[in-house]
Amino acid sequence: MKRRIGVGLVGFGTVGAGAAKILQQNALLIQRRVGVPVELVRIADLDVTRDRGVAVPPGVLTTDLRQVLDDPAVDIVLELIGGYDTAKRVILGAMAGGKSVVTANKALLAVHGEEIFEAAARHGVDLGFEASVGGGIPVIRALTEGLAANTVLSIYGIINGTSNYILSRMTKEGHGFQEVLAEAQRAGYAEADPTFDVAGTDSAHKLAIMVSLAYGTPVNFKDLFVEGITRITPLDIAYAKEFGYTIKLLGIAKFLRGDQEDEIEARVHPTMIPANSPIARVDGVYNAIQLVGDAVNDVVLYGQGAGSLPTGSAVVSDVIDIARNLLRDASGRVPPASFQREQRRPLRLRPIEDITSLYYLRFMVLDRPGVLSQIAGVLGQQGISISSVLQKGRKEGQTVPVVIMTHTAAERHVQAALREIDRMAFISEPTTLIRVEGHDE
Amino acid sequence: MKRRIGVGLVGFGTVGAGAAKILQQNALLIQRRVGVPVELVRIADLDVTRDRGVAVPPGVLTTDLRQVLDDPAVDIVLELIGGYDTAKRVILGAMAGGKSVVTANKALLAVHGEEIFEAAARHGVDLGFEASVGGGIPVIRALTEGLAANTVLSIYGIINGTSNYILSRMTKEGHGFQEVLAEAQRAGYAEADPTFDVAGTDSAHKLAIMVSLAYGTPVNFKDLFVEGITRITPLDIAYAKEFGYTIKLLGIAKFLRGDQEDEIEARVHPTMIPANSPIARVDGVYNAIQLVGDAVNDVVLYGQGAGSLPTGSAVVSDVIDIARNLLRDASGRVPPASFQREQRRPLRLRPIEDITSLYYLRFMVLDRPGVLSQIAGVLGQQGISISSVLQKGRKEGQTVPVVIMTHTAAERHVQAALREIDRMAFISEPTTLIRVEGHDE
């Protein structure tokens, strides 16, 4: 039996420093759990001088990542550099050398996950990626182990802290997106270029990973429908409140049992959810994932979705898990994709046009008699049934909002109706559509 | 490699039927995850005639539990009868026969956990007990794996659905304990004899298990401080609201880093928590556990803490976990107590008199001048500092409540002060003390 487990870190940035700190500070605790010492023996980073607040013994730090990959004392490689090319080379190189890998790289896994899963299986090594979704929240384990007995019926994830911070502030203060974004950038909660977060891409990466694990299916990332929060206005937030909803950027997945063939939905977009639902009150940079299983019903996991130590916590939990496997010669005991490799099956991802949902539609109209009847007429022709209408503050001759909540309707029909309505002369700007999750009453 | 995993069930009650249903309905899913079929081959129960809504093949059901324990086709025994004596015999008997065990029996584990953990280690088998705390919520895995890299600083658990249902209804409707209890009994949310739930015993069992896993320490169950919810009144709930708090029955554990020796606190009692804290809004029969780790900060797990299928979900997740170990000859890969056996260390459990807390004190006094000054005087002598006083509805000569919130104070001093105050002539009933979790401001 191995007398110690060696860890090699590639990427000594925020998350890398967090993982290193935990491995040092909680070394005794980790040894008591694992049975042998778990030691950080190599760290590779381009910058070997900056102080990360972690004491690194001499000889450990190097600029040459090959020194990590080639070191026989390294059993587990932590890929924490992010990005695609080098990260993938590090992961595949480590695996080829018989080393297990832990990564927080959701973008890489979302796009190249299948290739990496396959490499892990082929080389008989473990791949840990708890840190790739929800920071320190143990959601990957919930999907692969804790809820493994369940057919996952749906997933609702607040999985991007920046977007949630911005929407929370907009909701609380009534300010506009740009204003809150600027403030979030000053406070360090949003990047200088926030596109990745506010456009929904980051959430989609995480959703793709969860879908892959929940349903045992490869996911073609490009097929996910993704819409960000940049077009959400204080007006929509105020209306949402009036209807008893909160607007959140959600990653949503649903399992659709078919007569012929099962399908899944997987989409990221701003969503109105009932204000009393357990994830509606998840504010600020916190993340939360609601998983609905056919046996367990709804389970919600909540915590810090980012940050040096929370994400480092997930990284080191994977290290402990893999160390336990190494000591029992049981690498690959839980396949990285959670289903046995030969048991994974491509499920059809339903295109967004084919989904059904409740819809919030905000029309900006020139206030004059007959407008509502024309809008309602087009919706009716498309078979879309209205559950309520809000038309406040009449100002004849001026532009005013008309808000309509629909019963369950087909996205295809809603889009067709909006195309027709938005061409009408009394419509002053493109209509705002926000999908609503909740019960059709 | 094994071609299938055989499961034997002892106790075909609510949870047993849930587990059986899941093993049947999701058989294909489970096989896709594990790699081989997982089959329920034996079920023992005294009642072999009642319909549990599960189709049982002929020859599977027996009244003789030895037929489960002795069947070589049974790899994993599910002990779901509850109680102490027979349950323990089943578990130890199964282990002695080289079978792994899954149980939902929190009472047994809280009281005889050490002996059972030891037997699992000695026989080289696995013990799964995810279902023992929080029903379908994967909190055991969070403690043993997901947050394994953390020193757990504290645990706050709403871990008894009956008590939480009663407190939630009392809070919502302003009714008294007895009235709501009777209603909960009619609705099937409380047992005919609810003592176990409302007196805090069930919560304490679950807390003892979590403490054992979080800190790698044996727990002497009798040392836990346990106080139930029977004395909570609508008046206290109303005052709590006024101060911005909600009253929940919590299982609380804290890690206290000592100069000489680390200690832990572990206690169950009604607790005022800030109304905006993530677990304050957990209502009805839902459970939630907030874990605070030194790296991950706070993580909250929320879900259904009881019920046939939710608890069955946890049982079967353990079956899958153990099956994965059996197929890799890696039983005992995660020690049942989460720490390596030789690495467990008794931590001193701090007696309740030695804790410090914020306190809510409700004095029922004969309204006359000078009363508050006398109460404050005694508190002051004991070094207890007052943060606020509420004395509403003056009715000279009648009994009125005087409510005092303290700054952080020593339980010992508070108890001493109450002993003295409760002897005073103007005090008309024993003073109500509710511990408050929150920041001392």
What labels would you give this structure?
14 helices, homodimer, 441 residues, twelve-stranded mixed sheet, alpha/beta
Protein described:
The structure is a homodimer of 441-residue chains. Chain A has 441 residues and is α/β, with parallel strands linked by helices. Chain A is built from 14 helices and 18 strands. In chain A, strands 7, 8, 9, 10, 11, 12, 13, 14, 15, 16, 17 and 18 form a twelve-stranded mixed beta sheet that branches. A six-stranded parallel beta sheet of chain A has the order 3-2-1-4-5-6, sandwiched between helices. In chain A, a hairpin with a 3-residue loop joins β11 and β12 (297-304). The model of chain A has no long low-confidence stretch (mean pLDDT 96). At the A-B interface, α1, α2, α6, β12 and α12 of A face α1, α2, α6, β12 and α12 of B.
Record the SSE blueprint.
2 copies of one chain form a homodimer.
Chain A: E1 5-10, H1 14-25, H2 27-34, E2 38-44, E3 61-62, H3 66-69, E4 76-79, H4 85-96, E5 100-103, H5 106-123, E6 127-128, H6 139-146, E7 152-158, H7 161-173, H8 177-187, H9 195-198, H10 201-215, E8 225-226, H11 234-242, E9 245-256, E10 263-274, E11 286-293, E12 297-304, H12 308-327, E13 348-349, E14 356-366, H13 371-381, E15 386-390, E16 399-406, E17 409-410, H14 411-421, E18 427-436
Parallel strand pairs in A: 1-2, 1-4, 2-3, 4-5, 5-6, 8-10, 10-13, 10-18
Antiparallel strand pairs in A: 7-9, 7-11, 9-10, 11-12, 14-16, 14-17, 14-18, 15-16
Helix pairs in contact in A: 1-12, 4-5, 5-10, 7-8, 13-14
